[in-house]
Structure formats: C-alpha cells, structure tokens
Amino acid sequence: MKDRNIKLESSGEVSVSCVGWLLGAYLGATLIHRLGFGRRPRLAPEVFDLLPDDQKGVAAYTALMDVYISAGSPEKAMRIFEETRGREIIMPSLGTYNVLLSGLEKTSDFQREAGLLKKSLVATGRFRGKC
After folding, report:
1. Residue 130 falls inside a structural domain
2. Please, which of 2, 7, 35, 44 could form a disulfide with 20 given CB 3.0 to 4.6 Å?
C-alpha cells in the first residue's frame, strides 16, 4: 500500500504523510493500542483505517475495541465486534472477549450485552455453558 505514513515525533506530535511502507499486522495493532492509551484516542481509528484489509486481523480489531472502551464508548466497541463477526475470516480471540467484558461491565446494559457475547462464544465453540 503506497498511501500514507504515520510519523510520531519526539515532541508528541503525530503527522501523516505519503510514503510507501507497511506497518505489519501486529505493529499496526500496537500503534493503535498505544495511541489509544497515549492521550490520542482519536488517532487510533485513523491508523486502523490506514491499514490494508489483509493487516486488519483480530489483534487490530481488539486494539481498536479497547481504545473505544477506554475512551468511554463501549457501544462503538460492540459495533466493531459485530463487524468482525460479519467477516468470516476474522474469529475473535478470548482476549477480544476479555476486552469487551471488562468494558461492558461499566455499562448499564451489561447483562444484555454479556448475553450476546456468551451466545457468540457458544456459536464459535469457545464456551460450552448454558445460554
């Protein structure tokens, strides 16, 4: 992909410029996570959008969900989760479910959302409890 490059300056500034290099799946996820927890959560979705589709794996999606939850937007994290479930290539990991559950326990709809996650775990064969 020869679109944009993200440059982190020592002063804390972030700039996006045109260059031809790829972050890689896990480096991209790490950058998303670090931006989210480094007082720059608005840049995390932008970095996610810059990743090519083949680098948007479970780690990048989980990092983005974690950013939304830490920024106080668990509903956005759930929308991302539903998007990953719609893409059959990406199967959420147990870490993804941990991130979502830790964020959802802070919301008023915890029981309803936790029930949806449990159904998803049962459907993927990762949980064998009663629904």
Report:
1. no
2. 2
